[in-house]
Amino acid sequence: MSCEILVLYYSRGGHTAQMARLLARGVEEVPGCTARLRQVPPVAPVTETAAPPVPGDGAPYASRDDLAACAGLALGSPTRFGNMAAPLKHFLDGTGAEWASGTLVGKPAAVFTATATMHGGQESTLLSMMLPLLHHGMLIVGLPYTEPALTATRSGGTPYGASHVAGAQGEHAISEDERTLARALGRRLAEVTRKLAVMP
Prior knowledge:
The chain is an alpha/beta fold. It has a single domain (3-43, 53-197), classed as Rossmann fold (3-Layer(aba) Sandwich), CATH 3.40.50. Helix content is 38%, strand content 20%. It is built from seven helices and seven strands. It has helices at 15-28, 64-69, 86-93, 96-101, 122-135, 148-152, 176-197, and strands at 3-9, 33-39, 72-80, 83-84, 108-115, 139-140, 162-165. Strand 1 (3-9), helix 1 (15-28) and strand 2 form a beta-alpha-beta unit. Helix 1 crosses helix 7. It is globular. The protein starts with a strand and ends with a helix.
């Protein structure tokens, strides 16, 4: 049985987008599962010109149809003062119709982030993204400590979700442990989604 995982993210410096691609790779390592990469557009306090309907680079912009079509969801954002970034929050705030109709109820979900510093709010950002997913009735999937990289990592990686320490100027490449954990989270999300898809 085929299952499609929506990997939905906002990225400004490119690190969260890289994490999204790693999660997507993990998803597609599970037989019968595919990843659909989507991003959300930026927002501004005052909009003088409309954003183009297609982004200049990266994945296409997400639509509500992507939410309806997915069997599972991975949600990613850089941290903003220990919280998800405004563009992702803005997108989620517009999903009232999906909440009312139960579009996402019972679907598995996972979260991922990138921060400038080690203690720049990784875990609180991941938790902030879980809250609206719980309101949507989604089933949260994290990273268990049976993943050796979760104990070995000296940078990103938490039981709440995959993460990356990018550095104050975005100078740090994604470490091997961070890469391993991002792919592991994608695989775990896909495996849980596939198991739920075949249940009567």
